[in-house]
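Q: I'm writing a short methods note and want an example of a predicted protein-small molecule complex. Could you take the sequence and the SMILES for NAP and return the bound structure as tokens? Please keep the output block clean; save any remarks for afterwards.
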Amino acid sequence: MRVLIFGATGMLGKALMRRWSGDEVIGLGSSQADIRVPEQVSSAVRQAQPAWIVLAAAYTDVDGCDINPSVAKAVNTQGAINVTQAAAEAGARLLFVSTDYVFDGRKTTAYEADDPRQPINVYGKCKAEAEERIVGILPGCCIARTSWLFGPGGKCFPDTILKLAATRPEIDVVNDQRGCPTYTFDLADAIIKLCRSGACGIIHCTNSGECTWYEFAAEILRHAGSQTQVRPTTSERFVRPAERPKYSALSPASLTACGISMRDWQRTVPDYLQQRASLSDEA
Ligand SMILES: NC(=O)c1ccc[n+]([C@@H]2O[C@H](COP(=O)([O-])OP(=O)(O)OC[C@H]3O[C@@H](n4cnc5c(N)ncnc54)[C@H](OP(=O)(O)O)[C@@H]3O)[C@@H](O)[C@H]2O)c1
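A: Understood, no commentary inside the block.
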């Protein structure tokens, strides 16, 4: 089958391009098609005539979205609507990549796919609205929600921690936000399986297990053999423009129902470190 990926130049997009074999895959970045511009999107879709469109393009700077809400809405809501309309016109299936930040974080057990959306920041609000609007246009679309993405070749939490650890003896990391770290290569594999199986509806796709950012940082530095100490701190002492949910772990039930499972996040850390090292060897 032919697949068209919007956001192929991003962290997840790069993993999708690396992992997807056996199908014809066309990947586009924003310089080839700006999803805010309907004509650019429909022209790209008409040219590619894909069976599936994977929408991994987004404005992912969570604080930036709070600071520039009009850009956030243009890319993350209207952009998603533009891609969905083009998919509907071309008769293509759509997989939209969404986020744990559609929830407010007040639950204490993992969020299920049918839990009500209650976003608390602009990024989450734009994604939540996109989810609602695209289902209205293409009821058979697939919404793959993920969280705490990290992978080689992208600006991500482990990369930041490793860079800080290279120059500091101690790092303070928040210990009062819990979620599911998700390795881009594992998510790419799950997305490929979902498309191949013709999945539809909302599906939660994260690596198994949950932790705080502090625990995540400690695991990264332990595997990296770093001497830097990680110290737990609180969100109150680390104020940022956009509020984050305190708890946003996603239940794997919807993914398991598709016959797909994703390994524990701890097991992905050595793979990430290895891929990151091989990228810096290439540079
Ligand atoms: N990062 C996370 O922790 C996280 C968590 C939950 C969900 N997600 C979701 O997962 C998906 C992938 O995230 P990511 O971290 O891989 O993103 P990323 O690394 O920030 O990459 C963003 C991608 O979107 C493209 N893009 C941005 N604005 C665009 C526009 N106006 N038109 C067309 N393309 C545009 C970028 O293209 P250029 O580089 O060519 O400009 C790039 O390919 C997104 O839907 C995101 O919301 C991410």
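A: Remarks, as requested: DSSP finds ten helices and twelve strands in the chain. The pocket of NAP is lined by residues 6-7, 9-13, 29-31, 34-36, 56-60, 75, 79, 97, 99, 146-149, 154 (CB under 6 Å).
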